[in-house]
Amino acid sequence: MTMIKWVFWSTIWLLVIAVFHYTLPQVDIVRVTDTYEKRIDPGENALFWSQADVGSDGTMANRDVFFIQTRRAKGDVMVYRNEDTGWGWPPYFKFDTSNLQAEAADAKSTADAAQYYAIKHYGWRNEFFTIFPNAISLRPVEGPEASKGIPFLNIFIITLFAAIVWAIYVRWRRFRMSRIDPTLEAIEDDMAERSGAVKRWLGTWKKKA
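== DUF1523 family protein ==
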């Protein structure tokens, strides 16, 4: 039973961590190398695509999606999609996809005349499942060693979540100690008393025999 409980709670917390890691904003220092638009037919990976731009037909089976090609400060390539989140999840309320694409197109530079930008995004990059992080904003920085800034929003959300979980745990523990544990102890005592009565009754039959 202890092993089952351990596996259950480990799975729950891994899922919680995965959700936070996917949805909370992250910042990369990049050099924009190109931008393009591509027709996408979401399939098994549809969960990792947002939606059609707000105001357009969101029921389309396929749609054109903006992409931003970059090379990060460490030299590896990263490709971001650029989609509205609208009023959906995660709640970034992003409606300026076209404007961001125009900014990214204007930010392109070569390795010889590199210009670096801090690109804020959420999501994961997975080549096997064709998953791309979604770009949220773009701002110029001084160079590849520029600071990404302190993630105040992430700290606030995680702290708030931890406080809520702790408050629920404390209240549940108090409820369990005041209501559930006494009830279980009473049931155990009653069962023990009944078991003892049965044993005494059987003992009288053995004596008669």
